[in-house]
Amino acid sequence: MAYELKQVSVSLAGREVLRDISCTLQEGKWISIIGPTGAGKSTFAKVIKGLIPAYKGEYTLHRQPLPGDSKGRMKAVREIGYVFQYPEQQIFETTVYKELTFGPKMLGHSRGRIEEALEPVLRQVGLPAEILSASPLVLSGGQKRRVAIASVLITDPKLLILDEPTAGLDPLSRQALLQMLREWQQANHRTVLFISHQMEDVAEYSDEVMVFHEGQLLGHSDPGTLFMKNTEILRRAGLPLPEPVQLLRLVEELSGRTIEVDSCRERDIFDKVRLVWEARGLHHDE
Amino acid sequence: MLIFDQVHYYYRKGQPLLASVSFEIQEGEFVAIVGGNGSGKSTLARLMNGLLQPREGEVRLGHLSTRNTDDLIKIREQVGLVFQSPDDQFITTSVLDEVVFGLENLRVPREEMSVRVKQALRAVQMEDYAEAMPHKLSGGQKQRTAIASILAMRPRILVFDEATSMLDPQGRSQVLSVMHELHRQGMTIIHITHHMDEVLEAERVLLLNGGAIAFDGTPPELFRTGTLADHPLDQPFAVRLQHALGLNTGLKADWKEMIRTQWPTS
Amino acid sequence: MTNKIIMGQFTETDSVLHRLDPRTKLLSLLVIMLSFLLLKSFASYLAATVLVGMLLRMSGIRLGWFARGLKPLLLVLIFTFLYHVLLTGDTVIWSWSFIKLTEEGLTKGTINVWRIILLVLIASVLTATTKPLVLAQGLEKLLKPLSRAGFPTETYSLMIGIAIRFIPTIIQEMDRIILAQQARGYDIRSIPGFKRVFAYIPILVPLFATTIQRAEQLSYAIDARAFGTGKGRTSYRQLEFKRSDLVAALFTVIFVLMMLLIRIYG
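The joint structure predicted for all components is written out below.
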């Protein structure tokens, strides 16, 4: 079960925004998408979601080719959830209840199933049940964002696309949101496509990373390979290394030896660096 | 120079947004103001140049008070405000008109306007975009235009109200470098943010919590005292690194510099 | 969607029309539009069509661009046409059950549709060749005599300028909401015919909500740059009548005279 693109190109207003993309998105993975502004990240996500009507190439959904017509694309639309950038700006219903039930209704879920899904999804995003009758207009920015995300999670998507979901949030809200989404993804064995500018978040959460640059897919690998072994791709896309990896490089330079770490998560790198640092310090004491 | 004297503010009585806020900002300082979402940061910014009036207490700039209608125009000339959303502060339809807008309101003569416009656009490196339309600009370019439009009014203080939070990393670093360059030239900068690594580069930091000042001091003090633990703010990378290595002193915004200088040599 | 609505959109080409004083354009447009009330004979329609065709050519903008702008009006045009064709006139050319097609109806329908097209085209020539702010400035200058009678011309012209500036932004917003609905399985574009008009209503609710928030932000941005001191403003972009304005004005007068003569003797 997977989502597969073969040589997909997209032109918008006479400009080629995606060029010859071939890739497979495996189920159950957190896949991050990085690249400079205008690299084609959002367009790629929209193709996967079936929101872009005309593209060249082939899109296979669970080994079945997806017809390019609107009916075919609706199939992709149905099982994929999409949280847009600044999702709180796209709330369009008059109460939280209506906003949350809009998606499942459109998918034809039964009334009973929708009602049952409400409470768990509110709990998931950390909102009280009383909020259901409130108008979205009176909610705080953070609450609106959680409502917007809940309104997508409630459709129980197999693949969830997140377009910079943490933009504009304070650091702890950001961590809490990503943690929550990661837990949801792992507990339900779902796939996540995570568009981000924050290399540190990408290094922390991803199973796989895709690098886009000027409409092309420059690389697709696990974060360890991308950030620590094959860093040429990152350089070509004009993207910085995550800070922990930069630290690792600096310590290697200062100590004059290579340090083996198999994870690019901050905590693991800090542990290694501390060992090197302490070894140096002890040596110095003697 | 800029004084908050026992300022209270609320929209509805009984739900204070700011309570007994007092501080003074000196000429030439670079002050960061931090706090979680909804801690009252934006309200604070709007009180600074009289867009909002305190319910109790007073906001003063030198001997001018925002309470005095005659002073207001002078205060707005001297305290420039850059807002969060690049889209919602663009009033006109081109970069040039945007910079000129404030000058026209201040009744600046035409010859002087063109001098000021040139200087302001150069300061933010937008001189090649004078005739560009807003919806064709990137977020960083829009914010730089907003800065230019305020610089042209020759303010003494620039207040950035989360002006970097909606930008991509590239736009953010453009705006930050403009900010620091202006500070080097002597401008007083007040930077409201929740990017903690930006805080380390300030000379002084005010922490806002539930509408009150919870901390007022230097960034290393803030991170050393552990005040942050109770707030929805994380530690900047340099501080986390410092903790991980068990270092107690020498905190620097540039953590690479910090590591280099403290690297144990044998 | 964004590209379809051209009313009120400025194009960045350069032409004789782009360089005319906005006051000349506004007044000429008004007079020409009024003269279209005189349209009756075939000769008058021919004259008007030639005039509009000439103006389109002179604007230096591709004809296809104007044609695209007519597309959203298609429904109105068809409705007008059918209204006349089916409900007026006596000379029946063709009939089927209760539907009667008359000769007078056919002519009347064609003529009325043609008149709307001419009016829309000439209005889009104005907005396509004049920057919104310049247009607002021209209007302000024209209305200046009214300000002596206490009419707030500055505020009104700023209002018009902002309205025009925000057209692309609001369209973008609308596109975003449609996309968000589409992403949850609701495709407004798949709803047929007249029903779609009503389907747009739920989109308007969030659109108003965000627009109100925008308006609030914007009002702060305007205040922060010292607008509305009551002491008047200076203006950077100077308006001055040139020779070409005289030519345009003369041309307008001659055209209107011609229309009058055609009406009287034609």
